């Protein structure tokens, strides 16, 4: 057996070669020649054996391997300009003529920084790739005879070992391991049902069918003898398209997407199936949509690169000034001292002396950007990540899932987010629909959860014990045999395409095409009308304990244009009835005039996600005439859909209204409140979903992103239109937006591929950014990433993408920050993310608390760090004018080495880890406090300039106050002068950091005062007799500290210097609070509490939308009536002699997809008269 998968390589012009010509030559080859084709086969051949080396299913998600780690990691690290800067300094320090500092003062910290960062990056990459590996997943693999196999025909193997050409067996509820061609299944005619939530976010089941010629290969022996070959398109990211041909038994069979099971899908309601692997590993469509892993850097990192360049330029300027000074001094003054201070042999002239002095001062003044800065930044980011991991308020106890910072490099960026791109299914919603209320014959049923007890359904042995309803009057009406109520639930039990599965007596499981439909059938079940079984021609119910069988005459299926579904049945009494359910606007237009009063009454009861229910009694003769027309229309070739639609429209007239249902969209807890809070923080939220337009809008209303009181809600849609048509609609929407810039405009886009064309993307972005809410539907995974990239590229704003499925991975990787939710769609989004947690509501705390704190702390840390290092370093600059520009240092070498590592490292780390201007509760109560981060107000080029200016001023005072006080001592005892300046410096920066702190803890006190104490301890130790006795050459200044600091005048000078350095900054701070208060200052002054209504869900007015919102495709009506999905026993159990079959081409009709989207106008004003204000945020009926 030879099972091969081939694809045609496209030519340079993008066109595929002549397949027929290739096929003619292909079949002329021998088997071994076919295998050895070098450019077409999707696998390679070992040159040492005849074994076929097929492509495996292993997926590599790591950035590094053992060979590329060192060069790639070093390249990434040296993208930081400072690392290259320190490397240049190291090289300079190796030149003895210009170096006045030892080389180890630079190489040790540089190697330490590179090593620590490399270990962190390697650990993060290894953990991420190890978790992402699917090696633990297993599949049943059928090994072929003669293809390198000495095993039994079927054995369990890991996903990573599955290869192109393997035949694998999948079982119910199992993930599809690769892109496979469906060969056969346990269901009749090779059908199987899959859930594609991982790919497109849709939770409704979809149908796939094997080719007729392979559908009977369920026997292992037949599969072993299968020797088909496939020629198909190259790997691509188009989830809805596949083109290929199966060559088998000298025949060829066309293949399309309906024959394929893609990696990431889940097999549902199908016991087993067999398929042949077409694409594996990174060539699968899922992985083709995942995008590449990129190295993410924060905006502060990029800013620091620019600032380092500025500092380096400033350093060169200082070096030039001092070098010129050295040249002038040597020319005018230094010549007089050559008798006892002769020039070195290498020093030829004063100019050359200045040249050497330039490089010496570059080395001495390099501490304006100390390498300890980057070590401290990494420590802070690691600490902030642990704070996120340890936050118990982001822990979800139901799933035992804690928040996790999967990266340590993006924490401060969480405080600067301007755009959030969110998936819908599983991210905003729970994929759970709940039957809450209904209106029957003008009366509403269903109450609030807190107002009454749950209804007792113990009278019904077939009830679903998980079902909850809170109005016992509806059960009483059922028991009293109210005809309207019984007909209402009879309609719900008959009018649907749900497939029942009774695993044991009374244990029913419904497989529904949409969550809404399943909720309605389950509600009818609990109220005594239990859907038990169906055949192509009958539906069996259990009505209040009695089995009743209805003859199914026709199913008028749902589609996006009709927005309704109907069934025609014959009851046991022989009456023919049409039952219909659909969008209220559609049903109301087809009602009999006798239902007009009831229509108005029901309209007052309608709320979000409603479905109107109606019926009609049919005359036997009229139905027979109509059925003949239906049979004829089902067999025509041209305009079949239009003719069928016209017939459906004909019979669905003169309906009698029964009532309406209200289904609650089961959002995740706190979604609406989180969105409202984030909007107050001026964060724009875009929802990107693969669902259809109506679904997206309904979720928008449920989340209060869309409201009925909005001035404008624009819907821009397209249906394979020309670019000009879409551009016209977008421009029209933009014009209306510009006319009302202050109004609450919302923008809904029904996505098409040409929406991101270069001519349209700018218009789309400009319009979307004018709106407060943007919802994009029918978006593919790759288009999600393209939308994010569009905003990143043109708006230069920090973006965050959040999702829970594999279809969100590309978007998560593209955004500046990716957040994964541990939901119902697997873990691939989590594994590709930077941060993860269990519920969408935790995003509020992640951004407004942890993100804001991280940004605030990092900015304060950087401002203080640059201030203290300029104050520390520029003392050498001022001293140069008094030491003949000889590149002599003020401080001793040990103080220079320990200043940033020991004396001032812990206080600044404590500030960067624990400081906060407000607590977490205040951050959540006042979302506006988040805005400074979006505007880069806490650390920018202006603040950097002010910090450095303050540092320069401090260094000036630190040098000249002691110099003025001890001018004689400077000439006689330079080391005592150095001790005075060093002590003043340590005290000044310690006092300054104490004044800059907003939040004191015991750790802050310990680190600040402990660091001052450590300074004095080390100072006295290094200048003691003991250290001199051990290392006299390294510690020559014996007793200097004792003699200097024992003088009262020295302490007076230190006190004076401290006061003069600190008081100006303190005065400016007090004046700034009064004259230029920040948002934090303003909020701290407010005594009254926040406006509670800002964070409450906005109360909605009445709204009517179809509960068919979650039906994503044409229904299964024709599939059911054909009997193709029924098992033989079920099909033969009942047969109606009068039943007329539908077209034999049912499968083409059933599998045909319609992508029809219409431009929806805002009809809220026209409907207002039929609405009442809602007192509840839940969808309800009054």
UniProtKB/TrEMBL annotation:
Q: Which BP terms in the Gene Ontology apply to this protein?
A: Golgi organization; phospholipid translocation
Annotated positions binding Mg(2+):
423, 425, 804, 808
Cell compartments where the protein resides: Endomembrane system; Membrane
- Its transmembrane ranges are 101-119, 307-329, 349-375, 861-882, 894-914, 943-964, 976-995, 1007-1030, 1050-1073
Supply the source organism for this entry: Sparus aurata
Could you tell me one molecular function GO term of this UniProt entry? magnesium ion binding
UniProt keyword rRNA processing present: no
Needed co-factor(s): Mg(2+)
Q: What is its main location?
A: membrane
Q: Which residues form the active site?
A: 423 (4-aspartylphosphate intermediate)
- Please tell me which top-level EC class this enzyme sits in: translocase
**Which residues are the signal sequence here?**
none
Which segments constitute the P-type ATPase N-terminal domain?
55-107
EC id: 7.6.2.1
Sorted alphabetically, the keyword list is: ATP-binding, Magnesium, Membrane, Metal-binding, Nucleotide-binding, Translocase, Transmembrane, Transmembrane helix, Transport
Q: How does it sit in the membrane?
A: Multi-pass membrane protein
Q: What family is this protein classified in?
A: Belongs to the cation transport ATPase (P-type) (TC 3.A.3) family. Type IV subfamily.
Binding residue positions for ATP: 423-425, 517, 558, 581, 609, 689-691, 778, 784, 807-808
- Per UniProt, residues of the P-type ATPase C-terminal domain are 830-1078
Q: Which domain of life is it from?
A: Eukaryota
Question: What protein name does the entry list?
Answer: Phospholipid-transporting ATPase
Q: Which InterPro entries match?
A: ATPase_P-typ_cyto_dom_N (IPR023299), ATPase_P-typ_P_site (IPR018303), ATPase_P-typ_TM_dom_sf (IPR023298), ATPase_P-typ_transduc_dom_A_sf (IPR008250), HAD-like_sf (IPR036412), HAD_sf (IPR023214), P-type_ATPase_IV (IPR006539), P-type_ATPase_N (IPR032631)
């Amino acid at each position: 057996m030879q099972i091969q998968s081939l694809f045609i390589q496209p030519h340079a012009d993008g066109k595929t070669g002549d397949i027929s010509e290739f096929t003619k030559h292909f079949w002329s080859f021998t088997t071994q020649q076919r295998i050895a084709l070098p450019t077409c086969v999707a696998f390679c051949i070992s040159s040492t054996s005849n074994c076929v080396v097929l492509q495996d299913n292993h997926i590599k998600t790591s950035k590094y391997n053992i060979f590329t780690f060192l060069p790639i990691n070093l390249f990434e690290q040296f993208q930081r300009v400072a690392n290259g800067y320190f490397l240049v300094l190291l090289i300079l320090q190796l030149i003895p003529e210009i170096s006045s500092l030892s080389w180890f003062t630079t190489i040790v910290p540089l190697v330490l920084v590179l090593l620590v960062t490399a270990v962190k990056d390697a650990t993060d990459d290894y953990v991420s790739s190890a978790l992402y590996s699917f090696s633990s997943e297993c599949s049943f693999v059928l090994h072929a005879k003669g293809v390198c196999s000495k095993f039994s025909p079927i054995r369990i193997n890991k996903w990573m070992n599955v290869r192109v050409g393997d035949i694998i067996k999948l079982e119910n509820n199992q993930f599809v391991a690769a892109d496979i061609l469906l060969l056969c299944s346990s269901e009749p005619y090779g059908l199987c049902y899959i859930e594609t939530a991982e790919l497109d976010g849709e939770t409704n089941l979809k149908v796939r069918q094997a080719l007729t010629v392979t559908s009977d290969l369920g026997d292992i022996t037949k599969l072993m003898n299968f020797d088909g070959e496939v020629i198909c398109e190259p790997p691509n990211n188009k989830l809805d398209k596949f083109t290929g041909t199966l060559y088998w038994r000298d025949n060829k069979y066309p293949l399309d997407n309906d024959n394929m099971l893609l990696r990431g899908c889940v097999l549902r309601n199908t016991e087993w199936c067999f398929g042949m692997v077409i694409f594996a590993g990174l060539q699968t469509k899922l992985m083709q949509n995942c995008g590449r892993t990129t190295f993410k850097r924060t905006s502060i990192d990029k800013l620091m690169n620019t600032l380092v360049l500025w500092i380096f330029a400033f350093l060169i300027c200082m070096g030039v000034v001092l070098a010129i000074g050295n040249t002038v001094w040597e020319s005018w003054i230094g010549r007089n001292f050559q008798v006892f201070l002769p020039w070195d042999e290498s020093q030829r002239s004063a100019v050359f002396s200045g040249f050497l002095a330039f490089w010496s001062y570059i080395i001495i003044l390099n501490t304006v950007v100390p390498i300890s800065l980057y070590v401290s930044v990494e420590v802070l980011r690691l600490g902030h990540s642990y704070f996120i991991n340890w936050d118990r308020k982001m822990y979800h106890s139901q799933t035992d899932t804690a928040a996790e910072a999967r990266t340590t490099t993006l924490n401060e960026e969480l405080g600067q987010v301007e755009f959030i791109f969110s998936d819908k299914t599983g991210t905003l919603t729970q994929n759970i629909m709940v039957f809450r209320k209904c209106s029957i014959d003008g009366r509403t049923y269903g109450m609030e959860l807190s107002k009454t007890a749950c209804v007792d359904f113990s009278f019904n042995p077939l009830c679903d014990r998980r079902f909850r309803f809170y109005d016992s009057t509806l059960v009483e009406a059922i028991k009293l045999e109210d005809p309207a109520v019984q007909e209402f639930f009879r309609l719900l039990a008959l009018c649907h395409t749900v497939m029942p599965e009774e695993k044991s007596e009374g244990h029913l499981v419904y497989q529904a095409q949409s969550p809404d439909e399943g909720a309605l059938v389950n509600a009818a079940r609990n109220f005594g009308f239990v859907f038990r079984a169906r055949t192509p021609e009958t539906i069996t119910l259990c009505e209040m304990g009695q089995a009743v069988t209805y003859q199914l005459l026709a199913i008028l299926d749902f589609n996006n244009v009709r927005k309704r579904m109907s069934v025609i049945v014959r009851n046991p009494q022989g009456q023919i009835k049409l039952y219909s359910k659909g969008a209220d606007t559609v049903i109301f237009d087809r009602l009999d005039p006798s239902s007009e009063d009831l229509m108005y009454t029901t309209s007052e009861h309608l709320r979000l996600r409603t479905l109107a229910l109606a019926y009609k009694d049919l005359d036997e003769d009229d139905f027979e005439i109509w059925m003949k027309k239906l049979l004829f229309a089902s067999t025509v070739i041209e305009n079949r859909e239009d003719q069928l639609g016209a017939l459906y429209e004909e019979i669905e007239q003169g309906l009698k209204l029964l009532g309406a249902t209200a289904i609650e969209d089961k959002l995740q807890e706190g979604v609406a409140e989180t969105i409202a809070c984030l909007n107050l923080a001026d964060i724009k939220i875009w929802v990107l979903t693969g669902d259809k337009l109506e679904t997206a809008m309904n979720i928008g209303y449920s989340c209060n992103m869309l409201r009925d009181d909005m001035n404008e809600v624009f819907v821009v849609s397209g249906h394979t239109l020309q670019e000009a048509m879409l551009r016209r609609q977008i421009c029209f929407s933009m014009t209306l937006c510009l006319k009302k810039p202050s109004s609450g405009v919302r923008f809904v886009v029904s996505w098409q591929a040409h929406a991101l064309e270069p001519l349209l993307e700018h218009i789309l972005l400009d319009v979307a950014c004018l709106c407060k809410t943007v919802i994009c539907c029918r978006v593919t995974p790759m288009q999600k990433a393209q939308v994010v990239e569009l905003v990143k590229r043109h708006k230069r704003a920090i973006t965050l993408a959040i999702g829970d499925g594999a279809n969100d991975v590309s978007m998560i990787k593209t955004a500046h920050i990716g957040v994964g939710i541990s939901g119902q769609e697997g873990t691939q989004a989590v594994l590709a993310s930077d941060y993860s947690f269990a519920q969408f509501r935790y995003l509020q705390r992640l951004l407004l608390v942890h993100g804001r704190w991280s940004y605030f702390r990092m900015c304060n840390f950087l401002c203080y760090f640059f201030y203290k290092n300029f104050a520390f370093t520029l003392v050498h600059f001022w001293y140069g004018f008094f030491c003949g520009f000889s590149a002599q240092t003020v401080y001793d070498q040990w103080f220079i080495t320990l200043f940033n590592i020991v004396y001032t490292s812990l206080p600044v780390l404590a500030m960067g880890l624990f400081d906060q201007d407000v607590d977490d509760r205040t951050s959540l109560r006042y979302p506006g406090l988040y805005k400074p981060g979006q505007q880069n107000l806490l650390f920018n080029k202006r603040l950097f300039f002010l910090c450095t200016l303050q540092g320069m001023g401090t260094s000036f005072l630190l040098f000249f106050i002691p110099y003025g006080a001890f001018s004689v001592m400077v000439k006689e005892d330079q080391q005592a002068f150095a001790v005075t300046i060093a002590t003043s410096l340590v005290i000044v920066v310690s006092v300054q950091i104490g004044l800059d702190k907003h939040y004191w803890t015991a750790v802050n006190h310990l680190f600040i005062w402990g660091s001052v104490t450590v300074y004095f301890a080390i100072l006295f130790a290094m200048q003691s007799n003991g250290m001199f006795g051990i290392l006299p050459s390294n510690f020559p200044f014996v007793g200097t500290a004792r003699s200097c600091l024992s003088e009262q005048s020295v302490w007076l000078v230190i006190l004076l210097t401290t006061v003069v350095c600190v008081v100006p900054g303190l005065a400016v701070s007090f004046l700034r609070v009064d004259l230029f208060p920040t948002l934090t200052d303003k909020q701290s002054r407010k005594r009254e509490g926040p406006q509670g209504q800002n964070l409450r869900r906005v109360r909605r007015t009445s709204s009517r939308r179809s509960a068919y919102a979650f039906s994503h495709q044409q229904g299964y009506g024709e599939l059911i009536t054909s009997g193709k999905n029924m098992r033989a026993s079920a099909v033969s159990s009942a047969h109606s002699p009068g039943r007329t079959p539908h077209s034999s081409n049912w499968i083409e009709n059933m599998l045909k997809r319609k992508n029809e989207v219409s431009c929806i106008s805002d009809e809220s004003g026209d409907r207002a008269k039929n609405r009442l204000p809602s007192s509840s945020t839940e969808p309800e009926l009054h």
